[in-house]
Structures are given as C-alpha cells and as structure tokens.
Amino acid sequence: MTSQTNVISNDLIPNDLFPVIDALCAVSIDVARVIAKGPLGQSLAHQVGENSDGDGQKALDVLADEMFAKALKSTEVRWYASEEQEDAVLLNAAGKYALAIDPLDGSSNIDVNVSIGTIFSIYETKDGAEESFLRPAKEQIAGGYIVYGPATALVVTFGNGTMQFVLNPESGKFELAEKAMTIPQTSKEFAINASNYRHWTKPVRAYIDDCLAGVEGPREVNFNMRWVGSLVAETHRILTRGGIFLYPSDGRKGYEKGRLRMVYECAPIAFVIEQAQGRATDGSDPILNQAAETLHGRCPLVFGSAEKVDRVAAYHDLPEEEVSALFGQRGLFRG
Ligand code: AFP
C-alpha cells in the first residue's frame, strides 16, 4: 500500500514537522481503510504474538506498526519507539526527531466496531534512543492521536493549543475542524474500569464512592459513567464534552503503576489535554513534569477537566481517617 502524501494543509503545522505529521496522516488514511472493511477484510483481531510487556499483539497492531515505521523512514525521524517493539529503531541517522507511537491503541475493540486509535509523541532527538525518550514529558514538541471512529480525526498540539482535523472522505484530506479545543468544565461523567474497585487505593475508592453516592453524597450531584476500553476514544469524548478519566495504580500484580505507558500513552495524552486547558496527573503530580524510567514503563493517569483532576489530587492528600470514612462522614468536599 503506498500512502498518498500532502493529505493535510500545512498552514497550522510547523514547517519542519510537516513531513512527519503528513506521513502520520497518510498512513492513518490507509489504516482507517483497512479497519473500515471490518470482517470483510483480512482478519485483524487474531492474536499473533506478545509484545515486550507481555500484552497480546493483534494482527492489526503489527500491521499498523509496520506501516508507520515504513512511511516515517523517509522523514526526519531518527528514533522510532513503538509500543509494539522492545527497543527503539534507528530510521534516519541524520534525522532531527525522536517519535514514540502506540500504532493501534484499544486493540481489544478491533473486532467489535468500536473506536480505536493511534497515539504519537515527538521530541527533538538526542544522540541515543534512551536519552531521546526518557526525559520530562514537557519537552515534547508535538503530541497527538488519530481516532478511527465514525469519523477519522487527528487531534494534535505543538505546544500552542490543541487542534482537531477531520478526514473528509470526499476530499481524502484532513481538514481543520477546531483550532483551539477547550475541555468543558461542567460535565458529570467519569471514566474508570470499575471492575477493579477492590484493587484500588483508598483515595481512588473514596473519590469514586463519592461520585456514586450522587445527590445524596458529599458531591450532591448525580454522575454518569462511561468506559470504552480505548484510551483514544475516552480522550476524544472528554476533550469534546468534559469529564474525567482515571487509570490508577492498583493492587494487581503488574499494575503497581497502572496500565498505561508513560512514553506512548500518558505523555502525549497529557500534552494534548493540558493544551486544551485540562489537567493530567498521576493522581497527584502533573504528568508533564515526569519522565519515564524505561521505554515501556507505566504510569498512573488521571486527566480531564481541571477542577475534577485537582479534586482527585485533594483526595490523595486527605488524612487517613477522612479517606477511610463512609461518604456520609466525609465532610471536606460537601458542596
Ligand atoms: P489494548 O490496546 O490492549 O486493548 O489496551 C487498551 C488500553 O491500553 C487503553 O486504550 C485503555 O484505556 C485500557 O487499555 C483499557 O484497560 P482495561 O483492560 O482495564 O479496560
């Protein structure tokens, strides 16, 4: 499959980065086309192996990884770090950028026709691969995702606001839909995998208990819950209509730092969210101030409307007797 280039207008993309963003968009059009065939096309959801984290790899995970790596070879990307590969790969020794990518996020949703995505993060490169990626997330020069949903859309930031471009099926190009996305502050939705309730820490349980208590609880508001199981889809919903997402650390083996990877997921999503006037933390501290310790290292992630994310941090600061109390006795957040 040869991707057509010049599929996004260069007006709002920094000149130097344009070929990289254009290549990502071009491949995403091909990926979207493959996904759109669903069960009529090749079988994409069958497991073909395991990545270095022990996560099952689906055929589409591997295919998307190969497609992005191939297209980015002819750009200024020096280091290509993919969630699907153990080590970063040298693409263009003379290139100026280091690009991290989760080629296909939400792969458990491939065969059920639910939105999935690609997440990417770009840094100015350093000599070595590790030093290029294991650095504070605030050093990203671009971060974003492509969502393959009812519409295919690119959401991207270069540190100057968060923009949305939507693939127009008629023109075959990504067209600007929103120049400055802003997360609404008033949503009453939260997103968390509630089946893990028994494994959570006390502050997370207390926060969710208080949401579930609705108008009778200290928040005095009825909340609604959503959980898609695709980080990109949750991010897109929250950017569009507000709310909060939590993938906290929990007591299961291997979940001491949550599930999501700092380099491929937390850092770029945090960049996009903060540039849309939201907040992204590990529960307490900003993600953008943190650096991954290893290429595939995980980090708890809480993001969304700023006031809600700050509230989660406040629960982590509560004294033990408050956080353990039944919601009826937890007076701090009433009102
Ligand atoms: P997959 O790509 O393996 O489906 O994982 C998706 C994901 O990394 C992220 O997109 C979701 O937010 C999260 O995992 C869902 O995790 P649960 O399995 O706990 O629902």
UniProtKB/TrEMBL annotation:
InterPro entries referenced in this protein's UniProt entry, alphabetically: FBPase_C_dom (IPR044015), FBPase_class-1 (IPR000146), FBPase_N (IPR033391), FBPtase (IPR028343), Fructose_bisphosphatase_AS (IPR020548)
Domain Fructose-1-6-bisphosphatase class 1 C-terminal: start-end pairs: 183-316
CDD domains membership: FBPase (cd00354)
Record text on cofactor binding: Binds 2 magnesium ions per subunit.
Enzyme Commission code: 3.1.3.11
GO cellular component: cytosol
Main location: cytoplasm
Recorded metabolic or biological pathway in which this protein acts: Carbohydrate biosynthesis; Calvin cycle
Entry superkingdom: Bacteria
Domain Fructose-1-6-bisphosphatase class I N-terminal, residue spans: 20-178
Stored SUPFAM superfamilies: Carbohydrate phosphatase (SSF56655)
Molecular functions per Gene Ontology: fructose 1,6-bisphosphate 1-phosphatase activity; magnesium ion binding
Record carries keyword Protease: no
Pfam families per the UniProt record, alphabetical: FBPase, FBPase_C
Keyword Transit peptide: no
Ligand binding (Mg(2+) 1): 83, 102, 104
Family designation: Belongs to the FBPase class 1 family.
Subunit structure: Homotetramer.
Listed name of the protein: Fructose-1,6-bisphosphatase class 1
Organism whose genome encodes this protein: Thalassovita litoralis
Record lineage: Bacteria, Pseudomonadati, Pseudomonadota, Alphaproteobacteria, Rhodobacterales
